[in-house]
Amino acid sequence: MFISMKSVSAIVAGICLGAVAFQATAQDDIPRLRKAAEGLFLIGNALPTRAFSDVIASDIAAQDFNRLTCENEMKWDATEPQEGQFRFEAGDQLVEFAQKHGMKVHGHTFLWHSQTPNWVFQDPNGGRASRELVLKRLENHIRALMTHWKGKIDSWDVCNECYEDDGRVRAPGGFGGNWRQAIGDDYMEQAFKIADKVAKEIGDEKVLLVYNDFNMYKPGKRDAVVKMVNDFKAKGIRIDAIGMQAHWQSNDDPSIETIEAAFKAYASTGCKIIISEMDINTRNGFRNSGRGLERDDSVQGNADSSADALAKRYADVFDLFVKYHKDIYAVTLWGIGDSWSWLRGGQPLVFDNNLDPKPCYYSVLKSLQKGQAALKK
Ligand code: G3I
Question: Is the CB–ligand 1 distance for residue 72 below 6 Å?
Answer without folding.
Answer: yes
